[in-house]
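Q: May I have one protein plus its fold?
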Amino acid sequence: MRNSIFVIVLSLLAVPLVFADGKAQPILDGIVTVENDKSLWLSKTVATVEHRPESSIYVVRGRVQYRDVEGIAYLEMWNILPDGNRFFSRTLGEYGTMQSIRGTCGWREFELPANLMHLKPESVTLEINVVMPGKGTIELSGLTVSDVQTSEWFNSRTGGIIGGLAGTAIGLYGALIGCLGAFLGPRGKGRRLLTGMLVFAVVVGLALLLIGISALVLGQSFHVWYPFVLCGGILVTVFLPLFFVIKKAYEQVERRRMQALDL
């Protein structure tokens, strides 16, 4: 049992070493402020950079905060190819890193992804714009561009699938422990099995937390590090206290058994 846990933990901790090999190209280091004092549409270019993509998918990341923004504003990235063709990405989502800009919000992360599909240009000119339909103030900082295949472990869809499957597995595992505890616990049986299962869950949870923290430190996207941190946190915070509860329950059963023998 201990050997199996050791192998699994080492395999999980090896994930950051396998995939963390990408570097982001800086676009904007300082803070850029865009302020619109009129109830009129405003589109302002805050950065322009030439990117040489190493894969068909790349993404611009950064941080944004805003105050008193009227209507629905957004960040926009125009991708200008050498032949003059253009296409754009916009943060017009309802939530997440591609959420639209409205009202007031402190610093948060944003992403502007692009997919060249079958095209393989030597370079692409990226034009980052702030688009506002009315009054408000928007600030950007820490803009970078990176190729997804070299710096991102997996995309947001895969992150959602991983989170969903892991959550289901944790729920089923917890239900299994609950059933075994309810059946074997009152009889004083299965102590080593249950405690071993709980220790396994806690160790895996700690390993997942380490992976999530490593991903965050390495600059991975929210949808990459969040499933690891969430699942690891659930495993540790749920199964660690449960370990002590079950341990105490077995001790009480053993104490009653010894008292019955004494009588």
